[in-house]
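Pasting as-is:
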Amino acid sequence: MNLKKSALLILLILVIDQWSKIYIKTNFVLGESVDVFNWFKILFIENEGAAWGAKLSDIFPITDRSGKLILTIFRLFAIFGIGYWLNDVIKKKSSKTLIVAVSLIFAGALGNILDSVFYGLIFNESYNEVATLFSSEPYGGLFHGKVVDMLYFPLIDTTWPDWVPFVGGNNFRFFEPVFNIADTAISTGVGILLVFNKKAFKHHDEEASGSVEETENQESLKE
């Protein structure tokens, strides 16, 4: 897989991801949901923190605004790191599986960083109103945007039986997290690396094996 094909894959994911987020942001009020199926909903929420909504301010004695800035800067460094990795595996003509996986991870990370960097500048708040694109009253600033999530799959929504210790009578819902297309791309890329690990890194393993054999042959000739 060459650079052009990788770039097209990344661009496709970014377009779908940003289109879906902008559509949700400009057509839904925060917290509004639409039932697609009984196990799939479109639910508009905004994530101000990291995965699962975690905030640095919940861990360290800093303000939410400072925590958000630090997190966005960290994500920017991560983007450069993933981009370097992607460029490296393409140059080395690694396996298609590895290049696709890294491309998905890069596209997903870039999709979410666009929200974090720019959405605070171009949207107004979504509380009790539908946001406006390129609003004259933006809700944040550069590096202080909130990531838009909307895909919700409550595959199981029930109540624990009363006889179950500790949780009896409590609500049980699976799958709880709300996510977006960018998150899906990242999870898919990581999943490919985990499930198809040997296939993904096959080219590197062959090179390493070849180098060892070449070294052994050279040593045997010297003897």
